[in-house]
Amino acid sequence: MLRVRDATVTRWSSSLGRELRLLDGIDWDVAPGEHWVILGPNGAGKTTLMHLVGAMAQPSSGTVEVLGARLGRVDVRALRERIGFVDARLARSLRGSYTGLQTVMTGAFNTIVLQARRLAPAHEERARQLMGLVSALDLAGRRFEDCSQGERQRLLLARALMADPELLLLDEPAAGLDLPGREGLVAALVSLARDRPALPTATVTHHLEEIAPSTTHALLLRGGHVLAAGPVDDVLTSARVGDCFGVPVEVTGRRGRWAAAVEHA
Ligand SMILES: Nc1ncnc2c1ncn2[C@@H]1O[C@H](COP(=O)(O)OP(=O)(O)O)[C@@H](O)[C@H]1O
Ligand SMILES: [Mg+2]
Is the CB of 23 under 6 A from ligand 1? Predict the structure, then answer.
């Protein structure tokens, strides 16, 4: 589903007067049915990596294959239609006056404005089914702007599934959620993994507590480099997570739920 080889992303910084390496020498493979968590401190390059594998950015060097298509050789617009994406920018750009149902239905053609004329009854049926999957059916008639942060994130998850994506990318979906909001999102991700077992997902977070128990793999990013990538139980060790965030931590994992506590001297 994803095959990234020695990928680098550089950007010119006019303030520094030199090239910045946002990602450096990235190798990453994602197979069907894998659920990845991407962890790393602020500025590690997590969003840049999501943009790269979401076909929203090109590698400066190296190769990126997404759903069998090599970036640079394919029409990225067609490729993007096969990828579900949720980030904070999307939440801000959607109309607050839309109902929950309308918000989800904008995902049918991945537009900000509802394409009412192109919508068929089957779209509404599908939207309601997906809202059921993420426990958001009771939000069908509520205005998006009146929904809590957690409710919005579940609606955006359902929205991202409307076009039946082959890959789902979530950039900090749990940011700013309270405990019930976070647990609602985690439960939605678990239901999704059960309902669509082959759909690969990658979720960016800063907090181990936000990792859904359906997660199979983890990638640790720091300073644009991959520190570790592989099965979640192998990667999320105290030593590796501590290295990644630059503080001594104790990582605990029980029944698929993870926690990290900083060890104070
Ligand atoms: N277009 C850009 N030009 C220059 N620097 C950028 C650009 N986009 C991001 N950066 C910098 O690259 C680094 C990685 O950014 P980002 O991928 O957003 O990190 P993360 O999502 O892990 O916090 C940050 O230091 C950020 O300031
Ligand atoms: Mg980011």
Answer: no
pLDDT tens, position by position, 38-93: 999 999 999 999 999 999 999 999 999 999 999 999 999 999 999 999 998 888 89
pTM beyond 0.90? yes
**Is any atom of ligand 1 closer than 6 Å to the C-beta of 42?**
yes
For residue 150, how many other CB atoms are within 10 A of its CB? 22
Mutate to test the pocket of ligand 1, among 14, 16, 20 (most ligand atoms within 8 A of CB): 20
Residues with CB under 5 A from ligand 2 (ion): 46-47
- Contact of 76 with 47, CB cutoff 8 Å: no
* Separation between Cα atoms, residue 123 and residue 232, nearest integer Å: 36
Task: Report the candidate in 184, 183, 181, 219 with the shortest Cα–Cα distance to residue 200.
Answer: 219
Nearest Cα residue to atom 26 of ligand 1: 43
Asked if 229 contacts 28 with a C-beta cutoff of 8 angstroms, the reply is yes
For ligand 1, whether the C-beta of 205 sits within 6 Å is: no
CA of 23, nearest ligand number: 1
For ligand 1, atom 25, name the residue with the nearest CA.
Answer: 43
pLDDT per position as a tens digit, 162-203: 999 999 999 999 998 999 999 999 999 999 999 999 999 999
Q: Domains, the chain, ranges and CATH?
A: 1-82+169-184+199-265 (3.40.50.300), 83-165 (3.40.50.300)
Q: Is the CB of 132 under 6 A from ligand 1?
A: no
What end-to-end distance do the CA atoms of the chain give, in Å? 43
- Token output for 102: 């309308």
